[in-house]
Design goal:
heterodimer, A: alpha+beta, Alpha-Beta Plaits, 2 domains, 10 helices, rod-shaped, B: alpha/beta, Rossmann fold, 10 strands, 24% strand
Chain lengths: 305, 225
């Protein structure tokens, strides 16, 4: 127990030392931290944007209604029965019957072809059913559409899901792109921190030599550099999280106004607690990794002479 | 404490620094290692501290065959030896106290014990009141004494010194040597490399004379060694 507390207090001391040293050169440290923060904020920010787009497209997905136009021969009564039957299905949540008479009235009122319609002897419009599928799972919707299309009473099924599919593919592409960017920029963080640590090792060559001469092990010499890498990464992560938060709050007002124009209560989704923790954690781990690589490559070169 | 058995050291460049050195230094002894510059004094001390390894022969330190000490155990081994350098190798960005505390920190000594030993070491070299100063604010002689305090802080049985008075005037040099003698009186074994013959003539200790890579025993005064 005593040994553990001693060990811990030693580490805390060294940790504080590493932090203090980073503060000793505020400008250089700030530059390093900014670069790391940008490298971390870019993929995280893109990820937040893709997440937002997915949430948005998700809200559309449930609204993939499609329209079933019935044959002209179907009368009012059978149209109503058909609507009830379809609504009773498990994979359908709601069916709205658009009566051909109402449709004509609407068309007359809104299309501006009112007078032209008067020339026609009878109503050219069929009954239509607006079907809202249940759940919105993509495969089911297509199957349901096929089944409805196969009915004798159906003249035409118009499915409006293609654009949602396209959007989803674009989002998938964007997500992959963000993944690749994440990997590359993580590597960049490791390289930046590795390089900073390398410079720091060179700056403190003298000190390292002396420590080795008075019996400091490689582990002892290495530790403050690992802590320094960890601090840089963590600080970069914190700055990145703050940057994303500020960025989101800057665009959240215009985004809400835009959503209101579309009658949507949509609000921007920021970093969750888990995502923030992940961001800070990856910053720290990448910083540590950069320091491990730099010390492994450069510390053993400093042998006492 | 130290025993060399037919030790040779050849550097990769091809120069043979030591060619068959044999001597032994008993526990509690104090000896000067002399000889013209380039005679291999530094090399010999480096072999003792395992900064270098011999090309041939055996180096025993404290009855331990140094060739059996693996690389990763070297730091541990060095903690048992105090080393004093000509340029004292102090860290300018730390206080005198922290400089002396360095080997004790590395040995992860308890804080209270560490403070006690640092103060004791500084007291022995007469610099207790400068513990909070930067080494840069001290004179060269005082800096060298801080270096000595650091070497003895962990209470090693063996202290080696490479030209510890190389940069000092005769009076300060004598002062440093007398300091070493005081440590020797309490049982510390010392091996001090120096080319200042005039200085060691004033002191009555054994001399190991290195010449052309070999130890020649010339105990009499006023020779080349």
């Amino acid at each position: 127990m005593n040994l553990i507390t001693r060990y811990l207090s030693l580490h805390v001391q060294e940790f504080a030392g590493a932090f203090g040293r980073a503060l000793h050169q505020p400008f250089g440290s700030l530059m390093t931290i900014s670069v790391i923060a940008i490298a971390l904020a870019l993929p995280s920010g893109l990820k937040v944007m893709v997440n937002n787009a997915r949430v948005l497209s998700g809200s559309w997905e449930t609204a993939v209604d499609f329209t079933v136009y019935l044959e002209m021969s179907v009368d009012d009564e059978s149209a109503r029965t058909l609507a009830r039957n379809i609504e009773a299905r498990d994979d359908v949540s709601r069916v709205a019957l658009v009566n051909r008479t109402d449709a004509l009235a609407d068309f007359r009122a809104y299309s501006g072809f009112g007078e032209a319609l008067d020339v026609l002897e009878e109503n050219p419009l069929p009954h239509a059913l607006v079907v809202r599928p249940n759940g919105g799972a993509q495969g089911n919707v297509a199957a349901l559409a096929r089944e409805l299309d196969a009915m004798d009473e159906t003249a035409l099924v118009q499915l409006d899901t293609e654009w949602v599919e396209r959007l989803r593919s674009i989002l998938e592409l964007a997500r992959r792109f963000v993944d690749i960017a994440t990997v590359l920029l993580s590597l960049a963080v490791v390289v930046v921190i590795g390089n900073t640590i390398r410079l720091e090792i060179n700056n403190r060559r003298n000190e390292i030599e002396v420590i080795k001469l008075v019996g400091g092990s490689n582990g002892y010499v290495r530790r403050p550099f690992l802590y320094l890498g960890f601090c840089y990464g963590l600080a970069g992560g914190i700055v990145a999280a703050v940057t994303i938060g500020v960025g989101l709050s800057l665009i959240s007002y215009p985004a809400r106004s835009l959503a209101q124009l579309y009658d949507s209560g949509y609000r921007l989704v920021g970093l969750s607690v888990e995502q923030t923790a992940l961001l800070l954690g990856s910053g720290a781990v990448l910083g540590w990794a950069g320091a491990v690589i730099a010390t492994a490559r450069h510390l053993h070169r400093i042998e006492t002479t | 404490m130290i025993r060399f058995e037919n030790v040779r050291k050849r550097y990769p460049a091809g120069k043979e620094a030591l060619s068959g050195v044999s001597f032994s230094l008993e526990k509690g002894e104090m000896a000067f290692l002399t000889g013209p510059s380039g005679a291999g004094k530094s090399t010999l001390l480096k072999l003792v501290a395992l900064i270098e390894r011999p090309t041939r022969g055996t180096v025993l330190v404290g009855n331990q065959n140094t060739s059996r000490i693996p690389r990763r155990r070297i730091p541990h081994f060095r903690r048992r030896i105090g080393i004093v350098f000509q340029d004292h190798k102090l860290l300018d960005d730390r206080t005198v106290f922290d400089n002396v505390a360095l080997p004790l920190l590395i040995a992860s000594l308890r804080h209270r014990e560490l403070e006690r030993r640092v103060r004791a070491a500084l007291d022995q070299v007469g610099l207790l009141e400068y513990e909070k100063s930067s080494p840069l604010s001290l004179s060269i002689g005082e800096q060298q004494r801080v270096g000595i305090a650091r070497a003895v802080a962990s209470r090693p049985e063996l202290v080696i010194a490479d030209e510890p008075t190389g940069n000092l005037d005769p009076e300060l040099s004598l002062n440093i040597m007398q300091l070493f003698e005081r440590f020797n009186k309490v049982g510390v074994t010392l091996l001090i490399a120096t080319h200042d013959l005039e200085l060691i003539d004033k002191l009555d200790h054994r001399r190991l004379c290195l010449d052309q890579g070999k130890v020649v025993n010339k105990p009499q005064l006023n020779t080349d060694c």
